[in-house]
Specification:
With 264 residues, the protein is of the alpha/beta class. It contains eight helices and ten strands. The N terminus is likely disordered.
Length: 264
């Protein structure tokens, strides 16, 4: 997997005064490196700017990619201070390996959506059509969190009345490519290089060349996002402060503006 180019943005380390036991803010300049799931990119950049208004003493560099790719980089010593994942499994893996300062903190949820090119040349009208012969599905790699969530969704859909026998197997047989992350899926579908893909709902907000197919609400899957502070960080206090802020009222408000659901 190719590591995404870092996007440097200004941010601050501020601790909510209402948080009992939170570290005291510092006015000394601090550089904070955040590794984040690709689906967080837009919301996180905006959050960092909002965070700067409070205490402009911390510079944040954001690198985005698939959560699993970023977790692997951290395991091999990449200089991340904070890891924000699109699941709870990757952060927990770092916790169990003794590579974090504290436990994983859930900070957002997301739901899934089926996207198709704006012109919808394959005529996909419901998720049942994803198993139709000849439909080209663009998916992610097996170790990317969206693939786990998509698998759960397909299993849920397969149990619905009216869905064809062998639905899950037929869907899997229609997968024509596997991408590094959700942003790559959206890009390929937008370019018409596939007929459909399953992504996070937040990934469609800024896309102008795709449309979506509704998923029955009772079958949809909630993806829980969690973050951990890397214990090798030299800025543990700043990293924990930013994570607490994302999980707090101001961060939650911004994340919800970008289509995320409140943290569980």
């Amino acid at each position: 997997m190719n590591r995404a180019a870092p996007v440097a943005v200004a941010a601050v380390a501020v601790v909510l005064s209402s948080c009992i036991g939170s570290p005291a803010p510092t006015s000394a300049p601090v550089e904070l490196t955040v590794y984040a799931a690709a689906s967080l990119k837009d919301a996180l950049e905006f959050s960092a700017h909002a965070y700067q208004v409070d205490v402009p003493s911390v510079t944040v560099t954001i690198s985005t990619d698939s959560s699993t790719a970023l977790r692997t980089q951290i395991e091999h010593g990449a200089p991340a201070d904070l890891f924000l994942s699109a699941d709870t499994t990757n952060p927990q893996t770092l916790v169990q390996a003794g590579l974090t300062s504290g436990d994983a903190v859930p900070f957002a949820q997301n739901v899934l959506i089926v996207i198709v090119p704006a012109a919808n040349p394959a005529g996909i009208e419901t998720p049942a059509d994803l198993a139709r012969a000849g439909v080209k599905i663009v998916a992610a790699g097996d170790d990317v969190p969206i693939s786990t969530y998509a698998g759960q969704l397909i299993d849920n859909l397969a149990a619905l009345p009216g869905y064809p026998s062998g639905y899950a197997a037929a869907y899997a047989g229609n997968v024509v490519s596997r991408e590094d992350n959700v942003r790559a899926i959206v890009a390929k579908i937008g370019l018409g290089e596939g007929d459909a893909g399953i992504v996070y709902a937040t990934d469609t907000l800024a896309a102008t060349n795709v449309t979506f197919v509704a998923i029955p609400e009772d079958t949809n899957v909630y993806a829980t996002y969690a973050g951990v502070v890397v214990n090798a960080s030299r800025t543990v206090v700043a990293a924990q402060a930013f994570l607490d802020w994302l999980a707090g009222p101001r961060g939650q408000s911004i994340l919800q503006d970008f289509g995320f659901h409140p943290r569980p």
